[in-house]
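Section 3.1: Structural characterization of target chains.
Under the original work plan, the team committed to producing a structural model for every single-chain target entering the pipeline before any wet-lab resources were allocated. The record below documents one such target. The sequence was received from the expression subgroup and is listed exactly as submitted; it comprises 394 residues.
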Amino acid sequence: MKKNITDFKLKNQRVIVRCDLNVPIKDGVILDDTRIKACLETIEHLVSAKAKVIILSHLGRVKEEKDKETNSLRPVADKLSELIGRPVKFVPYTRGMEVENAINSMEPRDIVMLENTRFEDLNGNKESGNDSELAHYWASLGDIFINDAFGTIHRAHASNVGIAKLLPSGIGFLVKNEIEKISSALNNPERPLVIMLGGAKVSDKIGVINNAVKIADYVLIGGGMPYTFYKALGYNVGLSIVDDSSLEFCRNIYSQYKNKILLPEDIVVASSISEGASTRITTYADIGSNEVGIDIGMATISRYKSILMNANTIIWNGPIGMFEIAKFSQGTRKVVEILSSSKAKIVVGGGDTISALNKFGFNNKRAHISTGGGATLEMLEGKELPGLSAISDK
């Protein structure tokens, strides 16, 4: 078992907290502060314990110098200060004299946030490459390390794995809750356990499907993935998305687990991927050569509903159709409605899936909405999470 934030004496300690503050920002305005709010419990606990709080986070992708202009954490520091009700000193550097002076002058309960850790990737991918020198520098700024960034816990970066191996380390409340909820659903589910998978490419979820068929009672397939299965089974899929590299996998896994893997019976096909396209509902055996599969039909929705409403544990990753276009959103919208009224233990992960929940008014307060799509997927695969493995054991 890994140490967590409550296992440390925090008073007067310099505590480095790796948060996931990767929020959408446009013209300096934060569009969604969900991830900032998600880390408040850990930060407030540290402040109450009279620790000196040093926050690290990444924001966006930083590939060239001009990316710095739109990926500064300054607006995030301002929003955190507003939410937590106390000053958050922002240092617009990732290292150097300004950083060291700000930390050396900290008093208990002070909060300092450094600039976007991925600015360090402009000089040889030092952050994402887990550069040892950078990790040692950041570790030298603190006494204790707390990882509360579930969204990057599946990555081995200098700001999580690197620091964790150099300081006494533990997980924050957010990561603790994520690991417990997802692990419980996977390893100790109330059955029936239903895993519902959407998204575009089968190759992105081969590991997930391989593990899902072993642990779930049913695996429901949606999104763009059914068409690779259909083609593997010998059907014409027209212009639908197909992952040709996964045809053999689909053929083999379906032949072994066709009692568990459920593919759509009827589908919505369109003349093109646009709001003005002509559509019709058909079966997987009757897709025209110039048609593209875009959503599931009502017969499939009804079938999936009967399985989902009888489930006691549900894990969902990936939209069921192209919900961003209203004309093709019925399948995903209906699934959101079904899960809203479900009494099952529900875990939902993945950015697009959560966008769908928000768009269609998901209101099941018992559900666990994960903050880390990639980390959730790797847990679904049964993989080890580097950012968690690096944390000190109790």
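The two ends are 6 Å apart (CA to CA).
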